[in-house]
Amino acid sequence: xxxxxxxxxxxxxxxxxxxxxxxxxxxxxxxxxxxxxxxxxxxxxxxxxxxxxxxxxxxxxxxxxxxxxxxxxxxxxxxxxxxxxxxxxxxxxxxxxxxxxxxxxxxxxxxxxxxxxxxxxxxxxxxxxxxxxxxxxxxxxxxxxxxxxxxxxxxxxxxxxxxxxxxxxxxxxxxxxxxxxxxxxxxxxxxxxxxxxxxxxxxxxxxxxxxx
Length: 212
Fold this sequence. Notes:
Blueprint: H1 5-16, H2 20-30, H3 37-45, E1 51-55, H4 61-68, E2 72-77, H5 80-89, E3 95-97, H6 105-110, E4 117-122, H7 135-143, E5 146-157, H8 171-180, E6 183-189, E7 203-210
Parallel strand pairs: 1-2, 1-4, 2-3, 4-5
Antiparallel strand pairs: 5-7, 6-7
């Protein structure tokens, strides 16, 4: 599979001597910043004591917040440095080392985890740092891991992310990719606190279901 935009961005950050994503969120945590907005919405969408897959879990801030709310959470990421930071910072969050464009039920089963979830969470701009032309494959893979009555929470910046090589992902293109991946939009918002989505929104938050 091709190199992800995340890997390209990390290479640029290292070359520039920047701490990047991990250092940024570690600093926010130390400062007491609110970094649980996505988790609060995910908590509402999931049943109590639900099973949640955090796709592109990064350092684990969203998954760990959901664990603290009583859910069973499995994080998935593939950056070894970020995975190690997640294990140090949130040891209670179980992790699977896998790329999202290669993630299958068999991958999770081999690690001893469920293959179907009440909610799949893919936030924090994960969708705009994937490998080029893998968006449909990722959406299809994530949809295959949702229970028939389950949902997906997918959010990203429409203006591009802070990474050096993140893409602009137009809303219309995302909706086409969802349809191609067998997903339908249940709700759409402009923020994680459910502000309306408008033509001027710079962020899109989607609640998706598998097409019947």
